[in-house]
Specification:
It is a single chain. This protein has 4 helices and 6 strands. It has a 6-stranded antiparallel β-sheet. The longest helix has 23 residues. The protein has one domain: Thiol Ester Dehydrase, Chain A (Roll), CATH 3.10.129. It is α+β, with helices and mostly antiparallel strands. Helix 3 crosses helix 4.
């Protein structure tokens, strides 16, 4: 089964319903990049009339996580994935539709290759930037993913 943006959205509906209800949606996914959008609405707002930081975090994590899932699937190896830590910087109020993008697919493939060759767990820091439709950055998230080859 190929992992696509549409299949990621079905995954959200059944496995991460909070993200789905808040409007987080994958809109583009290939082996290099993932783009996720979320619109500021009543259900995902904070008391300051902007998008709650955790909703931005769900969208940002999905951009990196979907890329990791796709690259693992394409490797045909049993690899586990887990977020070890994350960091976030907020630079502007998030209102309207926010687009999160991660473009580090090549870096993931290198990390997976290293995990397979060494048979040891590997870590990778991935970045997802949230921007308005006009390209104004509102937040910048970094996630440390751990990738480990499972026993066959």
């Amino acid at each position: 089964m190929t992992i696509t943006a549409k299949k990621i959205n079905y995954f959200l509906m059944f496995k991460l319903p909070a993200a789905y209800i808040c409007g987080v949606r994958a809109i583009q996914l290939d082996h290099k990049r993932c783009t996720v959008s979320v619109k500021h609405r009543w259900i995902n707002q904070n008391p300051f009339k902007s998008m709650f930081w955790a909703v931005q975090g769900m969208a940002a994590e999905l951009t990196t996580g979907a890329l990791v899932m796709k690259c693992i699937k394409e490797s045909n190896e049993p690899i586990s994935m887990l977020v070890a830590q994350n960091k976030a910087i907020f630079t502007k109020k998030a209102t309207g539709r926010i687009y999160f993008e991660c473009t580090e697919g090549a870096l993931i493939k290198e990390t997976i290759k290293r995990a397979i060759e060494t048979k040891e767990g590997q870590t990778i820091w991935m970045n997802a930037i949230g921007k308005t439709k006009d390209g104004i950055e509102v937040s910048n998230f970094s996630f440390e993913w751990t990738l480990k080859l499972r026993a066959k």
